[in-house]
Amino acid sequence: MLAYSHGAVDVPLRGETIGEALRLTTERHGERDALVVRAQGYRATWRQLSDETARIARALMAHGVAPGDRVGLWSPNRYEWVVTQLACARAGAILVNLNPAYKTSEIEYALAQSSTSVLVHARAFRGSDYAAMTAEVRPRLPLLRLTVCIDDDWDALGRRADEVTTAELAAREALLQFDDPINLQYTSGTTGFPKGATLTHHNLLNNGYFVGRSLGLTAEDRVCIPVPFYHCFGMVMGNLACVALGAAMVVPGEAFDAGLVLETVAAERCTALYGVPTMFIAELDHPRFADFDLGSLRTGIMAGSPCPVEVMKAVLTRMHMPGVTICYGMTETSPVSTQTAVDDPLALRVGSVGRVHPHVEVKVVDEDGRIVARGARGELCTRGYSVMLGYWDNDEATRGAIDAAGWMHTGDLATMDAEGYVNIVGRIKDMIIRGGENIYPREVEEYLHTHPSVSEAQVIGVPSERYGEEVMAWVRLRPGAALAEGELGEYCKGRIASYKIPRWWKVVESFPMTVTGKVQKFRMREISVEELGLAAAEGIKTA
């Protein structure tokens, strides 16, 4: 048997926009809870949420936002995030997701590359002053004509809705097509610069819909979403799965807090819970875990990195989640391509990423692009409705990712067994996954190269019990240069996202190389793992 599988299913794809899906759900379940954000004391039914998204959509139109215009959203998890997400979809604007951890260089790049004209942002979050950073970069962004601070300007924005009638909004929505681009999500790349995956209503709505169906979600369900909205996990697998199926979105707070998650699940009687393995570990280890009644839970999603067997056992039993599933995917595929079933045995939930999703194809190929036999290792490729339109304004990168037959090359090494279960065994791309965050070494390396003392930097991932992987940098200094202890770490603070800053540093005179002069990162990892195990107490972290 060849390592190819097609997600044949009797349930058709949904041929509608996100706004139309919201309208249908509101008609069917208008008085049920749609969105609960406990940290803000916010609660809305589907009818109230529909009305609020219509109001903000009309306000955006009053500000001249036309179909296809880019609207940036830079905020932690708040009710305004969900409202803006749905309002942009209804107005036909392309939502540009901006990571709350971004610093000035990253936010400036994303806004410039996407030609964003409107930016909706929080005032501040976790020590980052978004308002100040926005003011700093705005003079260098001539296309950015409007900024809206959620904390200060939200009500004023809403008042502009009176300038646009409901009939005008309805006419705008009637013009939209489900294949229109509706979302840009920036993913780091091996070139060192983030690329904007361009996604449509069709991509996102259907992926959320089939993820939710795999969990058995209905309007009776309440989904606890502690994962970030800027990421597909939150906004698609979370928000849009609920929009598509009528389940309630229940948001604990702006960012992950294990105690708040447990409190929210118990108080709101959530039936599903999402997270990366480190989140579930933190919840299970919380000192007050036993104080919370989690008996309402039955299902959920764990994704982002492999799950240890003992953690999965505890989630299934102590957290009352017998139907927890594992998902695999990437931003460029909306994101989910494979998922375990709610009744798959434990071994498959920790030893695989499930089988192909409905209406999606997957295959495993060798270096020549030929499909390998089941059980053999190769690159995982995926094709179908979920594959992005391409990278925004980057045809070269798009051609490098999607081949002529429409297959998205994931860069992940995988095997497929006789039953079609896929197991991820490695990465072709030299990507680091730290606590569910994708980090591309080249991006960090290029920033480190801006330090005047650094001649060369090579970044790798090393194992971490807490995060799966941690970032480590090997640096070679310029002749005669010296570094104070902690200097490079301080140099990174405030300029690149904190999760990208290396945890471990090693100053070297040379790197392990092949005879052709290529750096052997696998050998760097081997050396680092050995040295960290033997010398962590003395500390390699000196740069």
With strands numbered from the N-terminus, the spatial order across the biggest sheet is 3-2-11-10-12-13-14-15-16
Q: Given the structure, what is the number of helices?
A: 17
Return the CATH architecture of the domain at 44-177.
3-Layer(aba) Sandwich
CATH fold-level topology of the domain at 44-177 = Rossmann fold
What percentage of amino acids are in beta strands?
15-25%
- Major beta-sheet overview: 9 strands, mixed
Low-confidence stretches: 534-539
Helix content estimate: 25-40%
Rounded mean pLDDT is: 93
| CATH class descriptor name of the domain at 44-177 | Alpha Beta
Q: Give the CA-CA distance, first to last residue.
A: 51 Å
Tell me, briefly, the overall form.
globular
* Number of distinct beta strands: 26
Task: Specify Rg, calculated over alpha carbons.
Answer: 23 Å
Helix/sheet category: alpha/beta
General description of the model:
Strand 10 (222-224), helix 9 (232-245) and strand 11 (248-251) form a beta-alpha-beta unit. Among the domains are: 44-177, Rossmann fold (3-Layer(aba) Sandwich); 432-535, 2-Layer Sandwich (GMP Synthetase, Chain A, domain 3), CATH 3.30.300.30. The chain is globular. Strands 3-2-11-10-12-13-14-15-16 form a 9-stranded mixed sheet, sandwiched between helices. A 7-stranded mixed sheet has the order 7-6-4-5-8-9-19, sandwiched between helices. The chain is an alpha/beta fold. Helix 1 packs across helix 3 (79-91), helix 8 crosses helix 9 (232-245) and helix 10 (258-268) crosses helix 11.
